[in-house]
Design a protein that fits this description.
Layout: E1 3-11, E2 14-23, E3 28-34, E4 40-46, H1 49-54, E5 60-63, E6 66-79, E7 87-94, E8 108-115, H2 116-129, E9 139-144, E10 152-157, H3 162-173, E11 175-185, E12 188-197, E13 212-214, E14 220-228, E15 235-239, E16 249-252, E17 265-269, E18 276-278, E19 284-286, H4 289-301, E20 308-315, E21 333-338, E22 343-358, E23 361-370
Parallel strand pairs: 9-12, 13-21, 15-17
Antiparallel strand pairs: 1-2, 1-5, 2-12, 3-4, 3-22, 4-7, 5-6, 6-7, 8-10, 11-12, 14-20, 15-16, 18-19, 20-23, 21-22, 22-23
Helix pairs in contact: 2-3
């Protein structure tokens, strides 16, 4: 596996990318792919005039064996030590972090039932593609894969950070978003935003081969499990536009209304949600009250927090049973069991995978979350 370092030169709506260097002599590499948040990376490499020249902030780091994830160098640190030598610590996040540079402005108002994929595309086009001053050069809308993105809703959103908002939508739909590089010709590239969904490979389905991580199969090397109910919020009071008792208000909960000790309430201030929208002629028109209430409920839905149940493990890299990126990937649903503790999670999602490379070889550390 080799690290590739690219120089990125934006030119209006185009993106010129040149390969600056190929590196295979680093001390360590962490490559953290995340499903519901922006992934990150860190390279630990000997400091030298040449490496300092190569690893500059604003450049792109890729891998010759991963064409889906590309990192943007955001920090470079030099450490000197008389005994251990001089090192560069190069860090950053994957290209989705570029969307963190934009907020949603003006208000995005969706008052008719619209697929989540179309809503995300509309937000990105308005705030990072179509605007002459706010465009991210080379950014294009890519593919949509997964039934979760066909789910429809109504919503109104403004002033939220674009990247953070997209990942919040991902949390609600069960999908993910990623920006990859796509070569057009020569040194011309485009950055493509794809929306996708993980595949169910657990014991709870019959369409795909089962993926089971277990101490019984010696592919589960270490295992931690945690459960925390204190973070959950399952009943939302949402107050919208207006003053005092005149404020529009509603509540939201999933399925059956929680009561007594099972009820965890949260207040959602949605005063920023306007009661007007632009019509096709650009004129402001009042939003019908029933539609406005539905939009308030969607804001409440975004503030519902499930109990935190997560586990982190180290799995066997050289396992002949399952190969990462071939048999399963981040976002997929698998089965995890630990026979000694009598613990079995029939359907659990891989929400992150840290690949680490150092003098001891390659390690895989996935993070799981129950559905």
């Amino acid at each position: 596996m080799q690290i590739e370092v690219y120089n990125m030169l934006p030119e209006d709506s185009r993106l010129t990318i040149t390969l600056e260097a190929i590196c295979d002599t680093f001390s360590s590499l962490l490559w953290d792919v995340e499903y519901y948040q922006c992934g990150c990376f860190e390279v630990y490499i000997a400091a030298s005039p040449r490496n300092i020249e190569i690893f500059q902030t604003g450049r792109i780091v890729g891998r010759d064996d991963d064409k889906e994830h590309f990192g943007l160098i955001e920090s470079v640190k030099i450490e000197t030590d008389a005994e251990d030598g001089d090192y560069l610590i190069v860090g950053g996040r994957f290209l989705m972090c570029l969307l963190e540079r934009r907020i949603i402005y003006p208000t995005l108002n969706i008052t008719s039932e619209t697929a989540y994929s179309e809503i995300v595309h509309a937000a990105v086009k308005r705030n990072a593609v179509d605007s002459a001053e706010r465009k991210i050069p080379g950014l294009k809308l890519g593919t949509v894969q997964g039934e979760c993105w066909n789910e429809k809703t109504k919503l109104q959103i403004s002033y939220s950070n674009l990247m953070e908002w997209i990942y919040k939508i991902c949390e609600k739909t069960g999908g993910t978003a990623n920006i990859r590089l796509n070569k057009i010709s020569g040194e011309q590239y485009e950055m493509v935003l794809d929306l996708s969904e993980g595949t169910d490979r657990s014991l709870m389905q019959t369409d795909n081969p089962h993926i089971i991580f277990s101490d019984r199969y010696t592919n589960l090397l270490s295992f931690t499990y945690s459960s925390d109910i204190s973070v959950q919020r399952n009943f939302a009071y949402i107050l919208g536009h207006g003053d005092g008792e005149e404020r529009k208000r509603t509540t939201f909960y999933e399925d059956t209304e929680p009561t007594l000790l099972d009820r965890y309430e949260v207040y959602v201030d949605a005063k920023d949600m306007s009661e007007e929208e632009e019509d096709e002629n650009g004129q402001l028109q009042p939003i019908p009250e029933d539609k406005y209430i539905e939009i308030l409920k969607e804001r409440g839905k975004q503030n519902i927090v499930e109990p935190l149940t997560a586990s982190e493990s180290q799995i066997a890299v050289q396992s002949t049973q399952f190969q990462y990126k071939t048999d399963y990937n981040v976002g997929d649903y698998v089965t995890v069991e630990h026979r000694r503790f009598g613990l079995r999670q029939n359907k659990i999602q891989i929400i992150g995978m840290i690949e680490s490379f150092d003098q001891n070889g390659r390690n895989l550390t996935p993070t799981f979350r129950e559905v």
